[in-house]
Amino acid sequence: MKKLIIFFLLTALILPIFFVRADELEDITKELETLKKDLSSKEANYQELTTRLNQIKNQVSQLEIEIVEKENQVKKGEQALAYQKNLLNERSKSYYKNIQQSSLTLLSMLVADNLSDSFRKFSYQRSLVNEDKNTIIKVVLYIKNLEEIKASLTTEKNQLTYVKQEVDTQSKVLSSQISQTRSKIAQLSTRQQQLISERLAALGISRSAASLGRCDSDLTNGRDPGFSPRFAFFTYGVPNRVGMNQFGAYGRAKAGQNEEEILRAYYDNFELKKDYDKSININVNGYGSYNIEDYVKRIYEVPESWGADGMASLKAQAIASRSYALAYTNNGSGSICATEQCQVFHSDPKGGAWEQAVNDTAGWVMVQGGSPIKAWYSSTHGGYILKSSEIGWSDTSWTKHANDFDGSVGSFSDLSSKAYDRESPWFYCDWGSRSEYNKTAWLKTEELADMVNVVLLARADSSTQEHLYQVDKPHPYGGEVWNQDKVKQELKNRNISYFNRIDSGSVGADFSYGKTSSINFSGDSGSVSFDGAEFKNFFNLRAPANIQIVGPLYNIEKR
């Protein structure tokens, strides 16, 4: 009986072996075949295909886990197999012995004087026979089931190997096609890049949180441009996203982070030295010389009101301002300007909670190798932190690329609810305006179609780029600007379909990096997709008035 109990326990544990679903492998194979066909399409949407391929990879990874589990279960089954074969032998002997005994008991019962007692003995003997029989059947079925599972495991492993090879092949194909497509992306000339920089600077976007106004967002100001449907492009954050995010620091302080935690969220590879020389003087252009601590008390970079519920953000700013000034002036041997180009400085101390933050952190400086780091910062990063090299500056070891939100983000709505700087009035804004359309940045459907046509033409023939500037101003270098009709004609001359109107637009965003990776349009000429940076560059050359997309992560809105 003890052996029988052990057997039932083993079968209960081993028989429900973890199965890899064959239909799931078949589904993945079908998905791969569909993906291969879509990859061969001339209108392939690489962002969508990349997402699908990543989903397949995740499915394959899960199946690998299941197969490993199944192999482990088979090993356990094989370990128990020797015992069960011995049990089968014992039960087979017992079965034949008991069935013979049962026959004798039946004869004894027929001739016995005490029929009732003989019947009980017969019934008992028959129960032993049935028990042996059932055990034999269970053991045989167990062995058969184990053999079938081992066979299916071999088949599934072979099929999964094929699927993994196909996934690897399609990954390489997709990567190659994306690379080829990117190599075809029209590149801007040096003077075009300079023009974009000048247009961006002309927007007058404040770097400082203290002097930040409200974003005149066309989603909230309620002004009607007088036409519909209409489109606008909204950027997350302001151009400089290097170092500390001032509104992000405020959000982190309200979330309970202290000044050191805040600084380490925005800077890398530094030591926070808390006894730096406080006797150094800083020369301020137009104002004279100030002791470093007195200088920092006159910095106007963040609202003093943040001290009420975000004191740690003021302390972090005081440390960053002190570190920046010391690095900028090489410990006081040079001078520093008093504007946003350096740090906003006024002759009178700011006072209040700001002065308290300066006093509480007196002598605290971020250093690397003993020297202060140039601790850049700006008002609003839009949920992401960039290295200095990512915005065209020299690479620095104390800047970093990092996320600036709580948890994970997979959509724009996630970002808007989780970014630490989401309270900034410039967190999500469309930039620029046109007085003739009620001071809004909305574009007409035919104007957006022109933007799309411009990118199509620049891709097809890079020599046309010198004619693709904004049509409401003279050519910046004295050439000819092609209007909407001329761009259409040039596309037609090259047998390329052009758009007269755009009906809808959407973006594909890389939320792990913080950029718009692709933008997609549908209109009267079908659908088309562009690299996000490519479209932004040509949009910023062509857009009317001072309308601009000012950062790597942007969205399109339609009303």
Count the helices. How many? 14
As for the CATH topology of the largest domain, it is Helix Hairpins
| Helical residues, percent | 40-55%
Low-confidence stretches: 1-20
What share of residues are in beta strands? Answer: 5-15%
Number of domains: 3
Residue-averaged pLDDT: 83
Largest sheet, described in full?
4 strands, antiparallel
The global form is: flat
Task: Give Rg in angstroms.
Answer: 37 Å
CATH architecture tag of the largest domain: Orthogonal Bundle
| CATH class category label of the largest domain | Mainly Alpha
Keywords: Coiled coil
Domain Sporulation stage II protein D amidase enhancer LytB N-terminal: 290-367
Coiled coil: 22-80
Organism: Candidatus Roizmanbacteria bacterium CG23_combo_of_CG06-09_8_20_14_all_35_49
Give a description of the structure:
This is Sporulation stage II protein D amidase enhancer LytB N-terminal domain-containing protein. Pfam families: SpoIID. Keywords: Coiled coil. InterPro entries: SpoIID/LytB_N. There is one protein chain. With 559 residues, the chain is α+β, with helices and mostly antiparallel strands. It has three domains: 183 residues, Helix Hairpins (Orthogonal Bundle); 181 residues, no CATH class; 164 residues, no CATH class. 49% of the residues lie in helices and 12% in strands. Strands 1, 12, 13 and 17 form a four-stranded antiparallel beta sheet that branches. Strands 3-7-8 form a three-stranded antiparallel beta sheet. A three-stranded mixed beta sheet has the order 5-4-6. Helix 2 packs antiparallel against helix 3 and helix 3 packs antiparallel against helix 4.
